Amino acid sequence: MIKAATRLPREQFNELLEQLLDEIKRTGRGIKKGKRLMVLGSQLENSTWIDAIEALDAVVVTDELEAGTRYFWGKVDTTLPPMEALARYYISGRPPSTRIWPAGKRFEHIFNMVEQYKVDGVISEILRNDAEYGHDKLFLDKEMNERGIPILELDVDYGEGASGQMRTRVEAFLEMLQNRAKAPAGKSPKK
Questions:
Q1: Could you tell me the residue ranges of all domains in the chain?
Q2: What distance in Å separates the CA atoms of residue 147 and residue 39, rounded to the nearest whole number?
Q3: pLDDT tens digit string along 152-166?
């Protein structure tokens, strides 16, 4: 959807979006997956690994990717002259990139999204050739653990799709989430 939104003329995209929303209402289709996931990372060079995740008992309900929600999150101040409004939006109106330090504002945005989208777990994807995106991994892991948000880190090669190893790691993560949901209140199993 995001890729279509950035590539199609606005009128054409809006028409297709209206058709999709109408189809969802008419058919009563809904997402009937177990675990709700959020994906973090840089660029999504190959979405087949997300397809593989969703082939399991999970659904990616939101993301925090460069070409995902981070691309359009926030609003442009239309009361300002157009160039100033766009400049202000790109400098301070969007969630900060993983390349910006300190990461506190970005982390708060992530935690707000986890709450807003009722996320059960987070998958952090780092492309091996984009090492600068991983500079905040230790701090993010620490903050996630302190808030009790399960996180799985996936280091992937550029253009790599779903692999057996990746599927195994995601299956184990989903099993951990399931066990966590079954644990008595206040007694979450160790990660």
A1: 26-72+101-182
A2: 17
A3: 988 776 555 567 778
